[in-house]
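== Protein entry: sequence and backbone fold ==
=== Local backbone shapes as whole numbers ===
==== Amino acids and backbone structure tokens ====
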Amino acid sequence: MTTSDSQPIRDFKDQDRVMEIVETGFESRRILVVGDVMLDRHAWGSVNRISPEAPVPIVRFLKERQVAGGSGNVAMNLVGLGMRVSLVALTGTDEAADQLRAVLGGAGVDVEGLVQDSSRPTTTKMRVIGGHQQMLRLDFESSHEPSAELQDRLLEEVRSKLDSCSAVILSDYAKGLLTPELCQRLIALSRQRQIPVLVDPKGSNWEKYRGATLITPNRTELAAVCSADLSDPKNLVLEAQRLRRHLGLDAMTVTLSEEGMIHVDEFSAIRVPAMAREVFDVSGAGDTAIATLTGALVTGLSDSDSLVLANVAAGIVVGKVGTVPLARSELLNEIDSLPGGDGRTHRKITKRQRIGRTVEAWRARGERVVFTNGCFDILHAGHVSYLSKARELGDRLVIGLNTDASVQRLKGAGRPINAQSHRALVLASLEAVDSVVLFDEDTPLELIRELKPDVLAKGADYTVESIVGAEDVLSWGGEVKLLDLMDGLSTTRIVSRLASLER
């Protein structure tokens, strides 16, 4: 099958399952990453004049940031998604090696597999940025192959960790670690244990990846290996399939930058268009894609849903500047924000264990979060007016909705009239509402303390002193707002009116 035989895949087939996996499913998995690790250093400064010594700008140093790059960025993305990660790689015996250990270990990556090689510096990329413009990059590296003794040590580190892992990622940045012999031994060990091996390839010698489960080249890398023009999607699929069969791979996922990605396996070709968004920096997008794809596949998501998820993840990081790993809260929030008619309405109904991460992602984007709560048993015009006013107080509106058990304790036998699932669905269908979360307590105090909203809204029939959570919201600098209600409208009056009509 070629890409012309089927429609492109843009949406998840089972979005609820995807959300479930991203929320908690990744946490049960450990991934082993083997490959070229590096330290990315970014030095920022201001530029106000040209040097009198040479026609170059003078950058006045202001700050520096250090992050893990290469296979280290793959590991950081996996950790950001909630997975447990072991990293096997080579470093030098220098200060950069210590800094890498601190960055990776501090994030929760198992760094016991970092093997030191005194014959090479720790690969370091130092970028000097003046204002918003990169002025210079200094590379400290050596790409010679490790000695046979070091390769044996690396292999022993792999053996010691392999049995506890769900998958292996080979992150090749052509810095010498992933020799043909080492790759083949790693793939053989993994295959013997039925552990999938995913590869982010480099260079033109792909024979060393023979027998891997999946590789993720970009179009330029694939074209160089095939010596073919791959601008035509049909030709790309044909060449990818030919190479996949030649190398004994289960599948190949080709990333196409602004055009998305194409995935081929023995039975089909799947095309996933890129998500429309402004691109600031493609650095690290491939690392994010292979990390997310690996996690999705090993937790049992379908190929198509795994590819869409990886595409969504890559789309997030290209909207950032520099090498920045993905956070699970960002991915959950992005999935929530996807269009989808009734599906979008259902996705507004947020699980208690997820709402904190969703609010955190909104706040990280500078959005102001408003919270209100209630039973909302029979939704009427007064509720709609009130919720519209509450939404105007910020960028996002979260409703804390009493469960059926909570309503019964508060209102007595015979209430609620409508079940919690129905009440939540009606509220979620309102344009003003961004999220509905159920709480089983008598009051929403614990939920308010978890979310720390910027604004707490209630009806003007309350006083600030009588509002549950008001004191807490004010304590962290938030606001409490009282909103006017429409006269004569309440669920209690509607219920009474209906009862009188029945008589």
About this structure: The longest strand covers residues 37-50. The radius of gyration is 27 Å.
